[in-house]
Design a protein that fits this description.
The protein is an all-alpha fold. It contains 14 helices and no strands. The longest helix has 17 residues, at 165-181.
Length: 227
């Protein structure tokens, strides 16, 4: 959509593009415009009800990184039915090609449908696509480690075996938060060393870096690292 691309370029920050491009090395720099996320989110809210947005959402794949981020922001802000939301998500997920777009994508409507979303997460983490798996892990981390916690997800994520860095990193972040929020349900996994070595050690590293874990617990977690 020419208007949307033109608007995105009007928000371009070259210095930010140069900095941000180093954080997503798998995306060619020429595909990155350089739009800061707060600006992009404001723009998504501004155009959400415009009739041309439908055409933009139907136009996949996108070329620019920011087009994908805008697409994610528009879906995340949807207020229609759960079925409509899931249709849009399932269409878009195969086109996510980087961790940043994946991690910013957290639909508000998910809070109203904990059971249905949980079942979809179980499907997503079985995908053969890196960022679909990561998205499923992200959503489980965001919505199911607090009041909607289900102890079974601790073992479920442990069952994921992947050679993909961005899948393993998502799993490590998940377990670092699980150690913070659901320690008693999670610590056994580390005592028994049931995770991949890299995920095991990275999870502990991230948990120990948190200010939400006391020093005594941090010291204990360090003793559980696999050498």
């Amino acid at each position: 959509m020419e208007k949307i691309i033109s608007d995105l370029f009007e928000m371009q920050d070259i210095k930010y593009r140069d900095f941000h491009s180093r954080l997503i090395p798998n995306i060619d720099k020429e595909r990155i415009i350089g739009v800061r996320m707060p600006d992009l989110r404001r723009y998504a809210k501004k155009i959400a009800k415009e009739p041309y947005v439908r055409g933009f959402l139907d136009e996949l794949p996108h070329y620019y990184y920011e087009e994908n981020n805008l697409h994610a922001a528009l879906i995340a802000g949807m207020k229609g039915s759960f079925e409509e939301l899931m249709t849009e998500i399932e269409r878009f997920l195969p086109y996510i090609d980087n961790w940043a777009t994946c991690d910013m994508f957290s639909p508000k409507l998910f809070k109203k449908y904990p059971n249905e979303v949980y079942e979809k997460c179980m499907e997503w983490i079985k995908s053969d696509k890196t960022y679909t798996i990561r998205f499923g892990i992200d959503i489980l981390m965001s919505f199911y480690l607090d009041e909607s916690f289900r102890a079974e997800i601790i073992d479920t994520i442990a069952g994921i075996r992947s050679e993909e860095y961005y899948v393993n990193m998502a799993a490590a972040w998940f377990y670092s938060y699980a150690l913070i929020k659901q320690y008693e349900s999670t610590i056994g996994l580390f005592r028994e060393k049931r995770l991949d070595k890299w995920v095991h050690n990275k999870s502990i590293q991230k948990a120990v870096e948190s200010r939400r874990i006391d020093e005594e617990t941090k010291a204990y977690l360090k003793t559980l690292k696999i050498k």
